[in-house]
Amino acid sequence: MQFNPIGIFHCQEKYPYDTARQGILAGANIGVVELFPGKNFEQALRDLDSFTHIWILFAFHLNAHWKPMITPPRHRKRKVGVFASRAPYRPNPIGLSCVELLEIKGLRIYVRGHDLLDNSPVLDLKPYLRYADCHPDAGDGWLGEEDLYQVLFEPVAEQQLAWLEQQGLTCLRPFLINQLQFEPADTKRHRLLHNEEHSNLVLAYRTWRAEFQIDESCRRVRVSKVFSGYSEEELHDDNDPYQDKALHRAFTEKAH
Fold first, then answer.
1. Alpha helix positions (H), 95-167
2. Domain segments of the chain: what residues?
3. Collapsing DSSP states into helix, strand and coil, what is residue 174?
4. CB 167 within 8 A of CB 247
5. Are 29 and 170 in contact (CB under 8 A)?
């Protein structure tokens, strides 16, 4: 038995740490399913736009091996079987994501609230059926053991994130929520930085940094500000391997 991809998924999220554990946790994430031409998929898409949500079946293309037992991102106390998880380390590396359908233009399907990575092979599309797919009384299994933190953004951080999102950097906010709502001070789970300039904890995301504080009394994490991971000297250097220094320069100038 062999499955052939029907298309490719395009989005900003390129690395495993970019994506949310579930699409519902990444409501701002925008992506596009680009179906392959010459397959008569134009007819196959007919009437799909009458639904508000769809299922995307895709392949975990970055995973070469499977694991029978895994440590879920939000459960450090013990391992669980891979079949009792949504982890990508599966015998058949197939993923499933329920997303909001925004619009269809030709062979391009625009969606929101996904947990895929860029260039994920798409295997199939199916409509989400509320009467069949929604089970309000379903149990959460071992997920009920979790104790999450509430992630809040201070006014400065909120303004900074809103500006970055207007410039197209929409994956930073979901990343911060995803990383900080469970064991935010765990250096084994998160790329945390400690330096003399910042007395608070600092979480690194690619070339960006976010300063935050933890209030254990009410299990809240407050993100106080976002700042560039580049030094002033690095920003003036023309070497730009990540092609993002123009945005960092504009962000820094706006802050001043």
1. 130-133, 155-166
2. 7-144, 150-255
3. helix
4. yes
5. yes
Query: What is the distance between the alpha carbons of residues 213 and 220, in angstroms, rounded to a whole number?
Result: 8
Q: Which amino acid is at 47?
A: D
> What share of residues in the chain are helix, strand, coil (percent, to 5)?
25, 30, 45
Q: What residue type is assigned to position 106 of the chain?
A: G
Is residue 206 within 8 Å of residue 248, measured between CB atoms?
no
Per-residue pLDDT of the chain (256 residues; tens, 9 = 90+): 889 999 999 998 887 777 766 555 555 678 999 999 999 999 999 999 999 999 999 999 998 889 999 887 666 667 899 999 888 999 999 999 999 999 999 999 999 989 899 999 999 999 999 888 888 888 778 776 567 899 999 999 999 999 999 998 888 998 898 889 888 887 777 778 765 555 689 999 989 999 999 998 899 999 999 999 999 999 999 999 989 999 999 999 987 6
H/E stretch holding 112: strand 108-112
Please state the CATH superfamily assignment of the domain spanning residues 7-144 in this structure.
YaeB-like (2.40.30.70)
* Overall pTM > 0.90: no
Reference 154, options 216, 224, 61, 232; nearest CA is 224
Task: Identify the CATH assignment for 150-255 out of 2.60.34.10, 3.30.420.10, 3.30.2310.20, 3.40.640.10.
Answer: 3.30.2310.20
Nearest in space to 241 (alpha carbons), one of 229, 225, 255, 250: 229
